[in-house]
Sequence to fold (510 residues):
Amino acid sequence: MKLTINRNSPIPLVEQIHNGIADRILSGYFAKGARLPSVRQLSKQLQVSPVTVVHALELLEAEKLINRIQGKGTFVYDAPENAGLDTNAPEEGGRHKGKSRQNIHSQGSGPVPLDMPDYLHRSQYLYYNQKPAEINFSLSAVAPQLLPTEELAKSLLSLAQQQPEILAHYGEIQGDLQLRQALSNYFAREKIQAGPQEILVTNGSQQGIDLVARTFIGPGDLVITEEPTYAAAIDVFRSRGATIVSIPMDEEGMRIDKLYEWVDRQTPKLIYTIPSFQSPTGKVMSARRRRQLLELANDVNCYILEDDPWSEIYYEEAPPPHIKSLDADGRVIYLKGLSKMLSPGCRIGFMIASVPLLNRLITAKTNADLGNPLLNQKVILPIFESEHIHKLLARLRPALRSRRDLCLSLLGEHAPPGLVWNRPKGGFNLWLSLPEGANTNDLLMESERQGITFLPGSSCFPNHLAWHHLRICFAHVDEPLLRQGIIKLLELIKQYLEDHHRNKGRTPVF
Fold:
């Protein structure tokens, strides 16, 4: 395990050590029952006092992520009868007593040891690699039957018959010019004035986050996010060695007063925000806050990365104008993914930025993959050139609203006391909160046994992990299964809360 700490970070050392170990436990890097390095090992590796390490371990133990057994060591939390019995745990000096799936990979030409330290931040994203389940509430995506697969199939067939030479050509690194022109026209209606030269096509919005991080973020840089935030973005920023500070939200979105408290201490390099139907909470940043955020970025000379996965998926009224539409100084990088509303298979996203910024992002894109597949771009081109996209969205919104309304109705009818939830005005997700002291990671284990998955809320907090939230996506499950799954999940939550109360906070045993 290679942990790194930043002594210039505003995050205390104890918290940094806690976060690094918690990330690796929650992501499965350490199996249940595995023995962690000793206090002496961690103290030596990190060059901190043993007292600092012990304090971090105390926090982990309070969160029930580890067991500390006197005379034996520190172990990832498991059933009491198994704790301390892991024969695959590392000895002093990093040697291993035996083989385990974490340390030996038996495919390919032979066993390859994986105990060499790496620099991956396995913080949250592996939550998406959960067990297969009949009812999948963890995947934030649209059910395939609601997407324009027939239109895309016709486009693909037409290309194969009339333009087969596309298969023999690389695309432009910046993206197909025709598609960028069509996207420029599309966003003119959204009050974002951007010519094709200001648009970069990406392999989904996830690559866009990564390109921004590669280009502008380095070790020790301060990145501001909302709290909670998109789990996979946390991983990307941490991989660059950034210090992540998360700002709480209220009903208007990110609290600008709390943000000013941080920028008075240290100037951020980047503010990452999802202002429209925020992931995972579904909140909408008000027009007033959007202007205030842009003013702050101009004042302190930092960038804003505006991530917009689904602003078109609104159920009552469209969200306020994009922050990018207010940007007169080239301060905002606008990021849009099309997977959520059009085609996960084509894997198309794009960024809009001023030419000086975009040229640097194109360089990063060149280093990453030399450009998106041309075929994928040409497949979706007719939908934008004909402006058929607007008809598709008009068809998608009521279908998803029906699913949202069904969930809200079932929650109102079956939710146990103490459970609260949001009423999203758009997007795909519901954010549920159990009473303080509950742990949805424990709940997930039983839920998976019952064939239901969801995303534990702890994956969405970069620093102070909150354990009592969970996110469910209603867009990926058809209505009969949605009804069945919500009712069953609420029964599990009810049982969990009863056991939790009976055991006075101890981990429930289902």
User: Anything to note?
Assistant: The first helix runs from residue 13 to 26. The CA atoms of residues 87 and 97 lie 6 Å apart. The chain has a mean pLDDT of 88.
